[in-house]
Amino acid sequence: MNIRKSFPVAIIICAVVLIAAAQTKNAPRRIVFARGATVARSTGYMRGIRSEVWFVLRLSAGQHIRVEVGGSGSTRGVVIWPSGKQDGGPGGVIYDGEVDETGDYKIAVGESLMGEAWRGPLTVTVEALPRGQASPDPSDLGKYAGKYPSEMFRDVPAIRTRLRRLLGVNYKAFTDRMQVEVPFEKDGDVLVTRGCMAHSCTIEEAILAIDLNDASVYVALKMNSKISRTFPANRSQLPEALKRAMAQ
Questions:
Q1: Domains and CATH numbers, the chain
Q2: How far apart (Å, rounded) are the C-alpha atoms in residues 216 and 210?
Q3: What are the distances in angstroms from CA 13 to CA 3, 7, 99?
Q4: Are the CB atoms for 212 and 244 separated by under 8 Å?
Q5: Per-residue model confidence as pLDDT tens digits over 136-147
Q6: With contact defined as beta carbons under 8 Å apart, do 86 and 80 qualify?
């Protein structure tokens, strides 16, 4: 008799445990920034074409964010505002812009319907700049003459954001060519530096110029010993300081 009574109770307990486990598995992973950090990462696991992984983070109106999704297969992602409006796209950088609401933002990541089915880990990287830092103060940049680019990128993340906007898919080609870097030099109202791939200096190089009047950024990429790309592509728009560096 006791066995008969306890059997339904056991079923109910098992059901509650399974539901709780499912809710835990599907619960959004909160992305937390370390004190003073502007970049944070979180990981999840993709389990198939109908699988979705959710993340959540707290943002304030006016912040500039960049959300990038990476995995071993093709992905899609969407950023959901506290009010419910959405923006996103295929995996890679799914959003790069300012947010205009304060509260918890959700990030949903799933498999791309256009790609092959896959299972495996994925990573979401979020860069969130404080309000106003997306527009660097040009008057503060002159102090980086004689200092390495990595120091400026760390102190003024808005410069890195401007480079991503300028270079688009070529941003990695730029960073690959800044593995070995030299300090900025001041040429008139422009800071100029150059870098190269490790073990490939003079062959695979990048030249960066920053206008101290408005913090505009300009880049030239050397591939196979030749200047092959400039950003912007119209070389008449490049500052003379960058052109002189390209001629060296």
A1: 29-129 (2.60.120.380), 138-247 (no CATH)
A2: 6
A3: 15, 10, 43
A4: no
A5: 788 889 999 999
A6: yes
The 3-class SS string of the chain reads CHHHHHHHHHHHHHHHHHHHHHHHHHCCEECCCCCCCCEEEEEEEECCCCCEEEEEEEECCCCEEEEEEEECCCEEEEEECCCCCEEEEECEEEEEEECCCCEEEEEEEEECCCCCCCCEEEEEEEEEECCCCCCCCHHHHHHHECCCHHHHHHHCHHHHHHHHHHHHHHHHHHHHCCCEECCEEEECCEEEEEEECCCCCCCCEEEEEEECCCCCEEEEEEECCEEEEEECCCHHHCCHHHHHHHHC
**What pTM, to 2 d.p., does this model score?**
0.59
Joined together, the tokens standing for residue 214 give 């408005």
Would you place residue 2 in the very low, low, confident or very high pLDDT band (cuts 50, 70, 90)?
A: low
Two structure tokens written together for 20: 């709780």
Please give the Cα distance from 183 to 208 (Å, whole number): 11
pLDDT tens sequence across 19-33: 334 444 568 999 999
Instruction: Work out whether strand 29-30 and strand 86-90 pair parallel, antiparallel, or are unpaired.
Output: unpaired
Above pLDDT 90, what percent of the chain?
62
- Give the model's confidence band at 205: pLDDT under 50 very low, under 70 low, under 90 confident, else very high: very high
Token pair listed for 143: 């102090």
Paired with 231 in beta bridges are 219
Q: Which whole-number Å values give the CA distances from 206 to 118, 194, 210, in the listed order? A: 36, 6, 13
**Amino acid letter at 113?**
L
pLDDT for residue 24: 43
Residue with token string 């030299």: 182
